[in-house]
Amino acid sequence: MSRDIEAGASRVRFRATGFNPRANPLAAWGSFVVVIALWQLGSSTGFISELAMPSPVAVASALWKLIISGDLWRHLSASLQRLFGGWIIGTVAGLAVGFLVGMFSWARSPGVAMVSALFPIPKIALLPLFIIWFGIGEPSKFATIAFGVFFPTVINTFGGVDNVARNLIRMGQSFDMPMMSIVRKIILPGALPTILSGFRISSSIAIILLIAAEMIGAQYGIGAFILAAGNLYQTDQLIAGVVVLSLLGLCVSWLLGRLDRWLLAWR
Amino acid sequence: MKSSWLKRSAVAALVAASLGGFGAQAAIAAEKINIASLAFVSSAPLFIAQEKGYFADEDLDAEITFFQAAQPVAVAIASNDADFGVTAFTGGFFNLAAKGGLRVIGAQLHEDAGYDGSAILASNAAFEAGLTSVDQLPGHSIAISQVGSSFHYMVGNIADKAGFEIDSIEMKPLQSVPNMIGALKSGQVDSMIIVPHIAKPLAASGAGHIIGWVKDYVPYQVGGLFTSQRNIDERRDVVAKFVRAYQKGVADYRAALLMTDEAGKLIESDSTAEILEIVHKYVYAEEDAKTAYPKIRNGAMFITEEARLNVADVAAQVKWYQAGGFVDASVDPASFIDTSFIPALAE
Predict the structure, then answer these.
(1) Is A51 within 8 Å of B188 when comparing Cβ atoms?
(2) pTM, two decimal places
(3) A81 CA to chain B: closest CA distance, Å?
(4) Most C-beta atoms within 10 A of its C-beta, which of A156, A179, B181, B270?
(5) How many Å apart are CA A39 and CA B271, to the nearest integer?
């Protein structure tokens, strides 16, 4: 019997491996190195003109100048305050509305309708209104980011609440648990994975909106820096600013990864 | 044999001309040029040259393409989408000129002590709180369009010449002129610098107060006429023809819009009405003549004779932008100014 199986195994290759891409950090970094090397080669040989795309060396030196002059920290601290403040406001409001929409019929239809109508509006188009409402100071910058963060947070939150196992909620209700207890002990943990993955989207949206938020009346900030570099056709500084934004995105994503592991450790 | 062929073609040309086909034939012979410009009074010499046929006289078939902002004009020349451009100098322009092979060959507006140019405005709230003269600007905010724009330079130039630090003024980049006006009207910024045809009506309507003029801090070469190095290399004769036609336009502009009496007040000359009519076709075209003409006259800033460029001032501007880090240190004004078509303005 066992010999038969062994004989069969030797004839038929194991085919059901599935698509199982493995993580390879070396290849991840290698791809960056290859692209940058090719880019530098193109710039050095003159195949890519300095006007069309600055060389990686020029970008690196622009970045270095930004660091040693101390301007980077000034820009970063201004931007981080706006990002953090705007994101917190948008997230808190989004979570509150999301839970209401997910749990109560009276909030459901109006909430979903409003979100569907307002989410696709490019917030940058509303910038003149934000300036009238909130002025050209910090509040309009917080508002731009908060509005951008609010809608995806609402959608993810009520999506997460919808996916919580109904029988668990019903069980809580049959045991006559108080409402706050049900929310805290059943709905919140159940919806958390979806909410956290929503954070990844909303934090990226916040970074994207930083440029729009810093268009008006911002002397410092990474977005303002990138805009100014674009206006001045200082393309090396423009790319340096974009690199900073991209690194910022990576940092935020790493932090959210840690948050994920910490909050979802119970799984 | 040959002479009879010439005769025959001459007859043919005459027939064609009498049939009204002459214009079409001339257009085929003429060299095509594309001019990038803004629909502002500052580009009026181009419109005059076009409407009065100065380009056609030089066998140029000129087409004017309009842009919304100064920098796209420079980009259009750098990318060879247009042959000639006229706009204000900005930090971005100088960077692009050095990298993209632009060559400044003549002048656009120039601030002159004898003519009203851009004005420095204070908001009502700031004026009442004591911002009544330029030397009180330190500690106040000022609206500019963008970092490294001509507005930014004007603030720096005034700060240098009035003797205060530019860092003592808070710059508020608001991206566009309408935003700047809105912020001043609502008192969200204390001050701004703006062209005369906007400044004067704003002050007259009580939306702000004029506290000074940029002309008190001259010299200031506001903008220039430029083309690409490729055009100069490959079509030098066309550039020379274009420059001649542009200079005729400048001469008409000066004769019609810059005539003054002995007291230095602007007066009407014989050609004022004609030139206003031409400019009105391009600038404020949607408004009727009664409201548009005063705006055009208000906006008609000084242009040097023969469109001569103040080379020394352009070099000084580049230096200022470089000191602020807005223009790359490697940019050399001599590399993008070409005075072989129009001599530089004498010091």
Answers:
(1) no
(2) 0.79
(3) 19
(4) A156
(5) 58
